[in-house]
Write a structure and sequence with these properties.
two-stranded antiparallel sheet; rod-shaped; mainly alpha; 4 helices
């Protein structure tokens, strides 16, 4: 699941993967120090509260991670859906959006005859101007949406990264 999340969730997914790796590493340290087959002995009895505390910290971190992932997906999911709908709308209106978010008008204009009516020429230029203005409005809207999306990603990436020192190291 962590690898799949990392692939689809960008920086948040990578941060989740890093936290899970650290939790696994810390659990392995405990498992190595206190093997399952070791008989109960004085060292185990004396150190048991520390072991329980360390394991509880791992579980608390997993719970906090679950809360962050849920919060993040509740915010990012609707934003992603809105972006997908906007991209579909742009495409249906004859615009394309490149990976750098640049919008291109792909509308093809039928050539006007050299002796075309001047009103038709004015109308054509007006239509081109309207489409250019619409593309500009879409650029601004996409910029706001991308900024909000990136801000959310950055916020939750930081929150996930902060789990290790705050919950596990006391």
């Amino acid at each position: 699941m962590a690898a799949e999340l990392s692939h689809h969730a960008g920086e948040v997914g990578v941060a989740v993967h890093e936290v899970l790796n650290e939790l696994t590493r810390r659990a392995q340290v405990i498992a190595d120090r206190y093997p399952e087959e070791e008989a109960v002995n004085p060292r185990l009895i004396v150190e048991m509260p520390v072991v329980v505390q360390a394991l509880s910290a791992l579980v608390d971190t997993l719970s906090a991670l679950d809360v962050l992932i849920t919060e993040w997906s509740d915010i990012v999911g609707p934003r992603r859906e809105a972006m997908v709908k906007l991209l579909a709308r742009l495409q249906s209106e004859g615009f394309t959006v490149a990976n750098d978010w640049e919008i291109t008008d792909t509308h093809t204009w039928t050539p006007l005859e050299g002796d075309a009516d001047s009103e038709l020429l004015v109308q054509r230029e007006a239509e081109k101007t309207v489409r250019a203005e619409r593309a500009s409005v879409y650029r601004e809207r996409i910029a706001r949406m991308v900024t909000a999306f990136e801000d959310t990603q950055n916020h939750y990436t930081e929150q996930v990264h902060s789990l290790i020192p705050t919950l596990l190291d006391g």
